Amino acid sequence: MTRPARSELVKIVLFLVAAAAILFLPRFVSDFRAQQFAYVGIYLIALLGLNILTGFTGQISLGHGAYMAIGGYTTAILISDQGLEIGGHVFSGDLQDVWTIPIAGVVAGIFGFLFGFPALRLAGLYLALATFAVAVATPAVIRKFESFTGGGPGINLFDSPRLTGVGGTDPETFEETPAGVSIGPFDIPTFNEWLYYLSWGIALGMFALAWFMLRGRFGRALRAVRDSELAAASAGVSLARYKTLAFGISAFYAGVAGSLLGIATTFVNPETFPITLSIFLLVGVVVGGLGSLWPLVFGAVFIQFLPLWAQSISKSPGAPAVVYGVILIAVMLLLPMGAAGLIRRVTWLASRLTTRA
Amino acid sequence: MAQFFQQVVSGLASGAIYAALALALVLIHRATGVINFAQGEMAMFSTYIAWTLTANHGWSYWPAFAATIVLSFIGGLAVQRTVIRPIERAPILTIVIVTIGLVLIFNGLAGWIWSAEVRAFPSAFPNETILVGGVAISVQDLGTIGVVLALVLALWAFFQFTKVGLAMRASALNPDASRLVGVRVGWMLGIGWGLAAALGAVAGMLAAPTVFLDPTMMQALLIYAFAAAVLGGIDSPFGAVAGGLMLGVGLNLLGSYIDFVGADLRLPAALLIILVVLLVKPEGLFGKPVARRV
Which residue from B106, B215, B274 is facing A129, i.e. has the nearest CB? Predict the structure, then answer.
């Protein structure tokens, strides 16, 4: 264990301050906003995962929506009453939604780890191509295996008694159950607020996890692979081990995010995880900054709120995509390091101005 | 047996469309080492232009067809000059992301201008079949194959017998040396993008009568074109055409004779082809293996 440097202690303090701010935010915003911020937390998790792979290890993935789909469907199958029969044993209904989240992450992580092996032989452009094809083919695969996934209509989770925090009617006693959750002395009044705390709680935990993973030897190895595979390999970094691990970890993050997305939307179907989701994740990482961690919050806010903002300019369905595309290209041409690069540049300028004065 | 031949011919027709789009990808990849992820969306956009010319401005089919090709050429050239040129030397990740940005822009613009509803697109060929030795062959399939073959021949002649074609081949092979002998390499790359856009437009217009016109119409076709280009060798124009035709026939037979694949698993099958070829024989069936000095 590396001892934390002073600058890192500052970071830890800032992290705790941010966590406190996140804790109290729902007290000041409407229930509807709380739901939107919950989605920001979910996207943040997915962006962290994608950035570990693309930003830190240099492996392009245009197909991270596919891992989110695996996570979302794992959760949905485990919660729903539809049941999944494997060898006579029916898996269904015995899990509360919260406990399916880590399972979803692990399942997606295994898929990611396994995809990492063929990906070892694909460099740059070809990896982009293969992952893109995976993302486009995912909805077709989901539709085909109807008995698992419910086909086109998907799996509906709404009104499921295993969904925490949703009000409804108890299926046995026909009594109204109140919405919201109470944990010890804390009362979370609505489903949306519960969603907010759930996704941000997990997002903060996984953010800290990413930070700890990347600050030491492991992160250095990943960056070495990104900057020069040849140099990394000659310095004794096993390319195969670190690339497959990066794929696995990255897919684990995506799986957790997908699981939360399924819980948040209370249903999953092939359209929950379209190719555009994978593309938007890439947009989010680029806007936040490739190879950055906390600026990814900007990326997550961006992909959640830009469509809403674009719709206020034009009601047309194509408007958000055009704005996304223009911003994506503009960022790549003018600000290749995204928000992280902008912040770095501004603080550098500020420090120069203050030292001169 | 008659049914088998029918499936082969209709497979060749869809394969011809994959081939045209794959050829567009190969043209750009050969010249610049870039895979244009927006090739499909650009083709979709071109198809909308053709549609609006015929449906809203009363043009008849072939003039609209020709005008669309010209407009697409100009559009492709303009995209290369404005968006792609500044990042020519950037890392691959940057280039991929920029072409993904183009995907979003063209997709969004089409929805913005023409709305996302599904529309019928006219076909140049009558909806009839002719009997050849007991096999019913649709005229539309024959027309599609004919148009693509004519196009491929014209392109071949262009590259083989014209000065511009020679200059383009030279700048793809060795940009620095070409520059030294006075070839304007930048413009050659631009023309390459224009030609690719024109090829895509043809693929889009030929595909639209059967897949119908909407902003997502080319997404699956682009994957098939990727598969065709990879199968034939991503740097081989001949390979792209052969790969497209093989893929069209193969997927069609797979879909009609193996129940498990059916119509739903064609796309995943194409994905599988991409993965297997890249892993086992990355240079494709007709490409030359690339030796890299490290």
Answer: B274
Q: Which tokens sit at A67? A: 């891992």
Phi first, then psi: what are they for B126, rounded to 5°?
-65, 150
Residue B136 φ/ψ, nearest 5 degrees: -85, 120
pLDDT at A67 over 60: yes
CA-atom Rg of chain A in angstroms: 21
Task: Tell me whether residue B153 is exposed, middle or buried, using C-beta atoms within 10 angstroms of its C-beta: 0 to 12, 13 to 18, 19 or more.
Answer: exposed
CA separation for the pair A199, A196 (Å, rounded): 5
How many Cα atoms within 13 Å fall on the side-chain side of residue A91?
15
ipTM for the whole complex: 0.83
Whether B134 contacts B70, CB under 8 Å: no
Per-state percent for chain A, helix, strand, coil, to nearest 5 = 70, 5, 25
Burial class, A318, CB count within 10 angstroms (exposed 0-12 / middle 13-18 / buried 19+): buried
Could you tell me if B243 and B284 are in contact, meaning their C-beta atoms sit under 8 angstroms apart? yes
Cα distance between residue B61 and residue A282, in whole Å:
40
CA distance B283 to A335: 35
Q: Which residue has the tokens 């990492």?
A: A116
pLDDT at A84: 57
Query: Taking Cα atoms as reference points, which of B116, B102, B274 lies closest to residue B200?
Result: B102
Report how far residue A335's alpha carbon sits from residue A313's, in angstroms, rounded to the nearest whole number: 25
Q: Which amino acid is at B20?
A: A
- Cβ atoms of A119 and A59 within 8 Å: the answer is yes
pTM for the whole structure: 0.86
Is the CB of residue A38 less than 8 Å from the CB of residue A192? yes
Residue B279 burial by Cβ neighbours in a 10 Å radius (0-12, 13-18, 19+):
middle
A115-148 burial: b if 16+ Cβ within 10 Å, else e: bbeebeebbbbbbbbbbbbbbbbbbbbbbbeeeb
Give the Cβ contact number of residue A73 at 10 Å. Answer: 29
Instruction: Return the H-helix or E-strand segment holding A126.
Output: helix A124-144
Nearest CA in chain A to B34: A125
- With beta carbons less than 8 A apart as the criterion, state whether B218 and B204 touch: yes
Flag whether pLDDT at A168 surpasses 80.
no
Pair A250, A64: CB distance under 8 Å: yes
Q: Among A117-121, A173-177, A341-345, which is the least confidently predicted range?
A: A173-177
Chain A residues whose CB is inside 8 A of the B223 CB are 132-133, 136-137
CA-closest candidate to residue A341, choices A303, A291, A280: A291
pLDDT reported for residue A301: 92
Enter the tokens of residue A132. 């893109």
The verdict on B94 touching A (C-beta cutoff 8 Å) is yes
Task: Please check the confidence at residue A183 and state whether its pLDDT lies above 80.
Answer: no
Two structure tokens written together for A105: 């992450």
Answer whether B121's CB lies under 8 Å from B61's CB: no
Q: Which of B21, B97, B117 to mutate to test the interface with A (most CBs of A within 10 A)?
A: B97
Q: Would an 8 Å CB–CB cutoff place B275 in contact with chain A? A: yes
pLDDT score, position A81: 64
Q: Check: CB of residue A221 under 8 Å from CB of residue A58.
A: no
Cβ-Cβ pairs closer than 8 A, A with B, add up to: 146
| Chain B CB contacts of A326 below 8 Å | 101, 105
Residue B87: CA count within 13 A, CB half-sphere: 25
